[in-house]
Amino acid sequence: MAAAQAIPPASPDMAGDAGTLDGNTVRRFILRFAIFSLMLALVPLIPGWDGVVSRYLSAVAVLVNGLLHLLGQQTQLDGTNVFSSAFHMAIEPHCSALDIVLFYSATVLAFPAAAMRKTVGLLAGFTAIATLNIIRITTVYLTGIRWPANVPGVHEKLWPVLLIMATVALCAAWVCYARKGRAA
Hints:
Elements: H1 23-41, H2 49-70, E1 76-78, E2 81-83, E3 88-90, H3 98-110, H4 115-146, H5 151-183
Helix pairs in contact: 1-3, 2-4, 3-4, 3-5, 4-5
């Protein structure tokens, strides 16, 4: 009697059924994640990146200023500076949350999924992180006009933790979304 042989999964990225990840898949994901993280960490070194960030921050400032106006604030805008007689805030490159976007992008690119799902994941993640960042900057401004002494804590302690938690949740949501696509 011949020994039974295991039939390899249809995809080298998934084991057994689409809902089970094997050890090799996890190791490949970690290796890909490390490679994509390193590659994306080099993005800021690309010539012209500072110009992209500058234009992005200008757009963020316009959106924050608009949101503050919707909330009844009489703010003005000068480049990436949002201000009123009560508080002045400069939106600087470290306020972009683009580092978090790059981390999330490495997760999406590393996890085994169809290209269309990865595209949807990248667009949805960027939109979610950018929206959360606009809310973050808006709340820092509102804190500045109501409780100026609390701005450092909100800006440097509370929001970084919230952004990390949100990004981890987005990564988990991405993995669930990608795995559902594999099961279909």
